[in-house]
Design a protein that fits this description.
The chain is mostly helical and 86 residues long. It has one domain. 63% of the residues lie in helices and 9% in strands. The protein has a two-stranded antiparallel sheet. Strand 1 and strand 2 form a beta hairpin. Helix 1 runs antiparallel to helix 2. The longest helix is centred in the middle third of the chain and has 27 residues.
Length: 86
């Protein structure tokens, strides 16, 4: 039920899709893939910050961009796999 990510526990996508008891497996797989990519991108930002190659401000700006892109991707995936009515 849970996947480990950066020493944190997060639920698998299939347990996060509210109101979707019969979600297509492709949708759940796409959500998991998107989440893994988000985790990787955020980890890269943390690495850059820890190495001192970017400032706190730059890291914040990058996180905002990455999370905004992730949310837009989730919306596209929902429409693509479930239609706009769900």
């Amino acid at each position: 039920m849970y996947q480990s990510s950066n020493d944190l526990q997060r639920p698998c996508a299939e347990h996060l899709v509210i109101g979707c008891t019969d979600c297509p497996s492709g949708y759940v797989a796409a959500l998991n893939h998107a989440q893994n990519e988000l985790d990787d991108r955020l980890a890269a930002i943390r690495r850059d910050l820890d190495e001192g190659s970017i400032s706190q401000r730059e890291a914040s700006d990058k996180r905002i961009l990455v999370m905004s892109e992730h949310l837009a991707r989730l919306i596209r995936l929902r429409i693509e796999h479930l239609g706009s009515e769900r």
